[in-house]
Design goal:
Layout lengths: L1 H26 L14 E2 L2 E2 L1 H21 L1 H6 L7 H24 L6 H26 L7 H20 L9
Length: about 180
């Protein structure tokens, strides 16, 4: 009888806890900084800034290393021949992407601050300009159809950083 009562109390306690958690999660907004989404990587339609920064770091590292190590081969996949002199510029671009990857990876754990806001705003500007330039390259025929993948990557990152720069989840420094 004691065991049955303990199990019943545990079950009631669990139901109350689950019920409270569901109510707290679904009906009442949680109090947390605006730049952090609750729960796992996605809660509803909102992405955590740390996940966006990690995705940005992975993309920047992959392309950056490609441009640093084998720029002619990377550019050739887009249907563009890379003259010898331009390989230097491509490698410099790759070096900047590797630096962006390191900055993005390190910023994942940063708390709300003016520095994090500046990083997010800088990434938003860079990704937005990249989007515009990539669309121009595809539309003018400067690159082949694979250029649309670059447009999609820049669009995703620009939109994501735009949300954290200006949207409802904007990064703000603590008061």
């Amino acid at each position: 009888m004691r065991i049955a009562a303990a199990v019943e109390d545990t079950a009631v306690g669990a139901e109350a806890h689950i019920g409270m958690r569901l109510t707290e999660t679904w009906l009442a907004p949680r109090v947390r900084p605006a730049w952090v989404a609750a729960g796992p990587a996605f809660e509803g339609e909102q992405m955590k800034l740390s996940v966006l920064l990690a995705v940005n770091a992975a993309i920047a590292a992959a392309f950056g290393l490609g441009f640093v190590l084998v720029p002619a081969e990377v550019v050739a996949t887009y249907g563009v021949a890379l003259p010898a002199g331009s390989a230097v510029v491509a490698r410099l671009f790759g070096a900047m992407l590797v630096g962006q990857a390191v900055l993005s990876w390190q910023a994942r754990a940063a708390g709300p601050s003016e520095a994090l806001r500046a990083i997010v705003l800088g990434f938003f500007v860079a990704e937005t300009l990249g989007f515009v330039l990539a669309v121009h390259a595809v539309v003018t025929g400067a690159v082949n159809v694979l250029g649309w993948s670059t447009v999609a990557i820049y669009a995703f990152l620009a939109a994501g950083f735009g949300v954290f720069a200006f949207g409802k989840s904007a990064v703000t420094a603590p008061a």
